[in-house]
Every structure is written in C-alpha cells, then in structure tokens.
Design a protein that fits this description.
Number of helices: 21
Keywords: Cytoplasm, Hydrolase, Nucleus, Protease, Thiol protease, Ubl conjugation pathway
Strand content: 15-25%
Structural class: alpha+beta
Domain DUSP: 1-90
Bound molecules: zinc ion
Number of strands: 31
InterPro entries: DUSP-like_sf, Papain-like_cys_pep_sf, Pept_C19_DUSP, Peptidase_C19_UCH, Ub_carboxyl-term_hydrolase, Ub_USP-typ, USP, USP_CS
Shape: elongated
Strand order of the largest sheet: 18-17-19-15-16-24
Distance between the termini: 44 Å
Radius of gyration: 45 Å
GO biological process, one term: proteolysis
EC number: 3.4.19.12
Length: 737
C-alpha cells in the first residue's frame, strides 16, 4: 500500500542558502535578504514550468515541510507566475521518498485522439484521479460510464480496469497516454464496436422496449442465451447493473473470481439489451470470457443451461464479492440450540465470507436434518443455496393410444386413449379398455400391427413396457364362447391380393400376393375350422366386403381334402401342394381363397413357427375391386377418450418441492460420520427450505439419476411448466419467510 504521508515543497537551493544566511546573521537589512522565493533555476523553461532533468536534492534543491513552506510564502511571497512545487512523500518500496518528479501522462478521449493534454500525477494517486482530470479537461458529463486504456510508447493498448489502483501499481509512467472512452447510448463501447456500425448512425435509432431484446445464437449457444435471458429479466440484478452499481464493487483481487472480467462482460450484455436500441445483441465477447474462465464452454457444442447459469452466478458473485479478505470461520455445532439461533448464525457466517448482489438476490438457506439410524442422534445444519435443483415426479401412469376392433363387421376400428400403470401388464390394458367398451377383458387379444401383418400377438401376462408409444396396437374383441367345453382356436387373418399373372415357371402355387388392409384376430371353435365354415365366417367378419345376400349365391366348393388342410392346423401335410392347386382352381368363382401362411403372411412356412395359426384370404384383383371397399376398410374412428386432454402432463411445482424435501437415506458411497457412534452411518437426510431469497431459481431436473442410469424424463407439454411458474408465488408464501 502506498499512502501519501504528507507533502514537501521544492525550493531552489541558492535561494534557500541565501535565506538561511539571512536568518542566521539576523540582520534584517543585510544584502543577504533572499527576496521572493524563486525557483527559476529549477525549470527547463518558464512556459511549461517543467523541472529540469536529473536535479539532485541538497545540491539543486531543498525539500521543506509544508508548514515551513507556508510560512516562507507568507513572509517572502513568490516570483509571479511560478507554481508552487508541492510534492508528495510516497512510501516507495523500502523507503519513504519525496516524489520530486511526478508521472507525466498524456490524456485524451477516444472520440478525439488528436486533442491531447498533459497532466502530472503522483505515483500514489489513484487511477480515479486520472478520470477526474480527463472529465474536467474535456467537459465529460458527470456520471458518464467510462473505460480507460493506457497506451505505451510501443503503441500497445491495455485496459486500466481497476480505478482504485495507484498510478504506481498500474505501471503508468511518464510519456504514456491514457485514452478514455464513454459508453454509447446503446450500451456498446466505441472501441469495441464493429467499424461498420460507426458510420451507420441509423443503428442507434431503434427504440424498442428496453430488455425485450434477442440474443444471437453463435452456434449451439441457446443454452447460454436462455440463461442470459432468465437473468436479464431478474429485476434486482439488472437494475444493479444498469445503475452501474457494479463498478464500485468489482473485485479485482479475489482469487476465486475472474478479476471482474465476467461481471464487466455481463454488464456489457445487459446494458446493450436494455438500451432499447437493439433488436438483438451478439454476446460474442461474453461467450469468449466465459470460455476463457470455464473451458468446458469454449467450443460450440450444446451444453446444459443450468450448468452455465450456475457458473455465471458463481462468477458474478466472486467478481462482485464485497468481502476482500475472507476470514476463516469455524463452524459450531447446533448442540441443541434453537433452529432460529443456529440458522441466523449460519447466515451471518455465510455473509461474512460472501457478500454480493448475487447473495442479496439469490441466496437462501436450507435446513438439513440427519438422523443416525442406530443411536438416533439428530444433526441439524443450515446451508446456503443459490438455486433449487428439484426432481420431477416420475409418472407411474402411462397413456396409450390403441385401436379397438369390435366383432361388429360394420364398426370401424375405434382409437381409444387409455391410462394404464407404467409397470402394468397387457391385461391392465385390456381392463382399462374394458371400462370404455364394456367388453370383458377376457374377450380381448392385443396385437402389434405393422405393415398389414401381426408384428406380435401379446399374451395377457406380458409387460406393457414391451410396447412402445409409436407401435400400432390393435385390441380385438373375440366372440363369446357358447360351449365352454369346446376348444377355441385363435386365428390370425391376413388379407392378400393376388397379382395379375401367376408364376407358372416355378411350378409352385406361390403366386405373387400383396398384403393389404388391417389383419384380423378371430376366435374360432376347432370344429368350425373347415374351409367352408371359415369362408362363411370370414365373409361375415370382413368389413367393407359385399353384403351377405350376394355371398350366399356363391357357395364354396369344399372337399374333404380341404378339411385336412385346415388352415388352423399347425403342421400341414407335406403333400399339400397339389391339393391347394386344385382348391384354387375350383374356387375361381368364390370371392377369395383361403391359404395357410406364416406370420409374415407368405405361403412358405418357415421353420420354428409357433402354435399360432395364420391364414390369408387371397383376393382376385377383379373380385376385390367389386366386393371389397378398401378405402372404407382402412378407416377408423376416434373414441371420445381421444378428445379428453391428457391430464398427467401437468406437474405442480409443489409436487417437485415436496419430492425434493422428502426424507432420503444416504447412499453407501456417501455415508455420514455419526459423532456418537464414532463411525459412518447411512443416516436419513431431510432437506427443508428455511429461508427463501428475493428471487428463487428453480431448476427442474430433467434427468433422473440412479446409480447406473440416466433417464431422461419426458416433459411433453409446455403447459406443465407454465403451471409451475404460476405456482411460484404460492410456493413462496408457504415457505418460512
Ligand atoms: Zn449414531
């Protein structure tokens, strides 16, 4: 630290010696009368009154204390026009010294660097004195926010950031130039504005609503921009910056801070956003500074907005921390003292080391209660927080959209929206659907339909987690069993259209077919598995096919052999080919023929097919055109449940906070040392909000972490978040204060 102890005055030695002789002789009329104090010999010229160089104390000049000087001045006066040479006594390293030669600096404004004045400063002067000198010399309006740059003789420029620094500490020396710039009305600085904007004055003309200002995406920087927008709209913090209160509180020495650079860069963004002169602001300098201090934000990849916000709040806090020397504070145990007392002590201790606009605005206090599972020792601590990172309740329910296909051939598949337990089984889906359709769950089969085929037919005890939201799930109503004793066969039915020409060359019956329409699942008594019976059954069930009256005129000619080849038999006889060919020939006049197929709907049966029988009904293109209305058959209707808005997407903030404050047991990796048991214990821990800040930041954790997984939670509806915001006030009221 350099403090001016007092000051001395430079007096030319000859005059001084003469005065000394005069005084010693005591002869008031002697010729040794010194006359007016005259320092002429010390000056290079009598225009600038610059001191000659290399003058030596006690040879060329004497130093007299201020008191003596004033007496001398009163008695003898001074030669007209000469300035008194008042010099400070400065505490230079190791010795006290009178600064005979002050630092001589050139001062100018950035807007007119031709107009330079020269001014002298003591090494003990603060940079602030330079600001005063420039403002006075160039009539800068008071209160203007300014930045100083020092230019050395090699014309390199450096910011003089800390105006509380001394001339000596800032390494300012004679011959250097200090340039001052004042902030533009649009929040930018003249020296950092792109050249092109200097010439276009129109850029200044936009007058929008201050604060309503976009931030340019610099490539994946929406995480940064969203955090900046949130903070920019936090009134107390933005006012603090707009009123330039931060200038007085910049902490250049905090080792935990960023030498005030983050705070300055943030201030620049805010001042520009709130100038009302920009549609949008390019936060490039800010991003560079952030990347400089936190390299994880350097590139242009996507980051977590909360991570940046947390870094920024911390950086701003340390850059603006009013505490310059953090003292060590030993924490006292609660020792059964009342909560209020312990909490106040914790808050006081926190403020003794952390005192900034960020603490004023955003910091609150948690109460954390740990209970030892063995000795039941209760430990209460109060810890400061800057934001709440609350979990989102994991929904235990799931909304599924499924198509219900009733037995009624004229009813179109109806799309239903059902709510099922997330961990439920297929039977739960059937039960939920049963409530809407009044069809017993036992009369339903659930299948995943893909490309006119069954991708999978589910068993009732299969887990619903096998079903993805994007799957097309069809639930089929099965016919009521009239004779309980008779065995029922679940028949999967595909619709195929024969291509126009048959591939005779291959010698097989695998004529080209194309699947179309929705497949069907039917429950058929084993006794009704003859071709004829099936043909009639299918006719009845086919939606959009010709009315029954017409069908009956085209009886199906079925042979005993056909019966052998019942589609529902899992393993058909090996000699099926000739029979099938004959069947096809005989059936030329029927609407369609029936083929046993595999699950893919092709005639070749692969090995390893399950017990599930699949049949296809093959339509002749002509017949299909005549009797089957494909457009009608593909249609579906929406059940009323589809109109009901999905309710569970709304999450109340209160729920999140309740989850956050739920009692939890510490994990193995992070036990608590119980002072009574003298060992680590898996204590139960409960967090409570003890005191809330003026502005509470709530971070909704979109990821739920368990030991091994990171599950992204769906936030499907922005409506849910909106509700959160409107809940804020009530949440605040319900907390302690
Ligand atoms: Zn214990």
């Amino acid at each position: 630290m350099m403090l001016p102890v007092c000051c001395r005055y430079v007096v030319e030695r000859r005059w001084y010696e003469q005065w000394k002789g005069f005084v010693e002789t005591g002869d008031q009329n002697s010729s040794s009368f010194p006359g007016q104090i005259d320092n002429t010999e010390l000056f290079e010229d009598l225009d600038s009154y610059h001191l000659k160089e290399r003058l030596v104390e006690n040879e060329d000049f004497m130093l007299v204390p201020a008191e003596a000087w004033h007496k001398l001045l009163t008695w003898y006066g001074m030669v007209d026009g000469q300035p008194p040479l008042e010099r400070k006594v400065v505490d230079l390293p190791s010795t006290l010294k009178v600064e005979v030669y002050p630092v001589e600096i050139f001062l100018c404004l950035h807007s007119n660097m031709e107009n330079v004045i020269t001014s002298q400063f003591s090494r003990a002067d603060n940079i602030r004195e330079l600001v005063f000198a420039i403002c006075e010399a160039f009539s800068v309006p008071p209160g203007s926010e300014c930045r100083l740059w020092m230019k050395s003789s090699d014309s390199s420029c450096e910011r003089l950031r800390n105006i509380h620094m001394s001339v000596l500490d800032a390494c300012l020396s004679s011959g250097m130039t200090v340039i001052m710039e004042t902030r533009n009305a649009d929040g930018t600085w003249p020296s950092s504005r792109p050249q092109i904007m200097n010439s276009v004055e129109d850029q200044d003309s936009y007058r929008g609503q201050p604060g309503v200002c976009g931030l340019t995406n610099l490539g994946n920087t929406c995480f940064m921009n969203s955090a900046l927008q949130c903070l920019s709209n936090t009134a107390p913090l933005t006012e603090y910056f707009l009123q330039s209160s931060y200038l007085e509180e910049l902490n250049f020495t905090n080792p935990l801070g960023m030498k005030g650079e983050i705070a300055e860069a943030y201030a620049d963004v805010i001042k520009q956003m709130w100038s009302g002169r920009h549609y949008s602001v390019v936060p490039r300098v800010f991003k560079t500074k952030v990347g400089h201090f936190a390299s994880q934000f350097l590139g242009y990849q996507q980051h977590d907005s909360q991570e940046l916000l947390s870094f920024l709040l911390d950086g701003l806090h340390e850059d603006l921390n009013r505490v310059k020397n953090k003292e060590y504070i030993e924490l006292r145990d609660a020792d059964g003292r009342p909560d209020q007392e312990v909490a106040e002590e914790a808050w006081r201790n926190h403020r003794r080391r952390n005192d900034s606009v960020i603490v004023d605005t955003f910091h609150g206090l948690f109460k954390s209660t740990l209970v030892c599972p063995e000795c039941h020792k209760v430990s209460v601590t109060f810890d400061p927080f800057c934001y709440l990172s609350v979990p989102l309740p994991v929904s235990k329910e799931r909304v599924m959209e499924v198509f219900f296909v009733s037995l009624d051939p004229y009813a179109k598949p109806a799309q239903h929206r059902v709510v099922v337990p997330k961990a439920g089984k297929v039977s739960d889906l059937c039960s939920a659907l049963s409530e809407m359709t009044s069809i017993p769950p036992t009369q339903m089969v659930v299948a995943d339909v893909f490309n006119h085929r069954f991708y999978k037919i589910y068993n009732t005890d299969e887990s619903l987690s096998c079903i993805l939201d994007r799957d097309d799930i069809f639930v089929y109503e099965l016919s009521v069993l009239e004779e309980q004793q008779e065995e029922q066969v679940l028949l999967a039915l595909y619709l195929r259209e024969r291509s126009h020409y048959r591939d005779y060359g291959s010698g097989s019956s695998s004529y080209g077919t194309t699947l179309f329409g929705h497949p069907l699942l039917l429950s058929v008594p084993r006794s009704s598995c003859s071709r004829e019976a099936l043909y009639n059954l299918f006719l009845q069930r086919l939606p959009g096919s010709a009315p029954p009256a017409e069908q009956s005129q085209q009886p199906c000619d079925t042979t005993e052999e056909d019966k052998q080849e019942e589609a529902c038999s899992p393993s058909p006889p090996a000699n099926e080919q000739p029979a099938k060919r004959r069947t096809c020939r005989k059936r030329r006049k029927s609407l369609f023929t029936i083929q046993a197929v595999n699950s893919n709907g092709t005639t070749e049966r692969g090995s390893g097919e399950g017990a599930q029988p699949y049949v296809a009904i093959d339509w002749d293109p002509e017949m299909k055109k005549r009797f089957y209305n494909e457009n009608e058959a593909e249609k579906y209707v929406k059940h009323a449940s589809m109109e009901v808005p999905q309710q569970q997407t709304t999450v109340q903030l209160q729920e999140c906070i309740e989850l956050f404050t739920t009692v939890e047991t510490l994990e193995e990796e992070n036990p608590w040392y119980c002072p009574v048991c003298k060992k680590h214990q898996l204590a139960t821990k409960k967090l409570d909000l003890w005191s809330l800040p003026e502005v509470l930041i709530i971070h909704l954790k979109r990821f739920s972490y368990t030991k091994f997984t990171r599950e992204k939670l769906d936030i499907s509806s922005p409506r849910g978040l909106k509700t959160c915001c409107s809940d804020l006030k009530s949440a605040r009221l319900q907390a302690n204060w």
